[in-house]
Amino acid sequence: MTRQSIVSPLPSDFAERCRKLGSSTLYEASGLRCAADPLIRSIWDGAFIAAAAYPLECSPGDNLAIHIAMEQVPRGAVLVVSTSNFVAGYWGEVLTVAAEVAGVAGLVIDGGVRDVAAMRSHKFPVFSRGITVRGTVKASVPSVGTAMSFTDVPVAPGDLVVADDDGVIVIPAAEAGRTILAGEVRAEKEAAMMQKLTDGATTLELLELTHWRALK
């Protein structure tokens, strides 16, 4: 088995910092068009991913590329799988167990999955477009471990993927450090704003929108 390596400039403590910030704050702080299709959601509440991307493409209804990727994906990476938005059961309990053994951080897929109860039991984070019993064939491999477009968002090996109950974002690796720092500044400002709200201020005042009061 040959596993590829991902050379990524992500800060060493990026996962913990991203968990505190969440995808929405990081998205706003990034200033980038980095949000994946909002229909791609967690299959169980509270799932979270902050990991380096390992992208691959499946032909519609064909999951051979995933099985090949499982022998190459670096430990700690998240599989980001494009299926041309074709919903089928590309992933289930067998691949979940294989992923845990391989140290995979989670799965983000624009297609579908099945065996949801098992994945929930394993607490394996999966974000997908849908859930279906429909299976797949194993016949073709468009790409494994190379840059691609995921729901119109560019994703390359080593890019920062953050996924939680709000959605999925993909930050270019070169922008990750800047985005996390900007997110922390934004979070501090929001915390100060919420304290002022608790003390009696209004959002119109804090956001300097009081001119709209004249429209009453």
From TrEMBL:
Keywords: Lyase. The keyword Lyase applies. It holds the Pfam family RraA-like. GO terms for molecular function: 4-hydroxy-4-methyl-2-oxoglutarate aldolase activity. Its EC number is 4.1.3.17. Signal peptide: none annotated. This is 4-hydroxy-4-methyl-2-oxoglutarate aldolase. It comes from Caballeronia udeis.
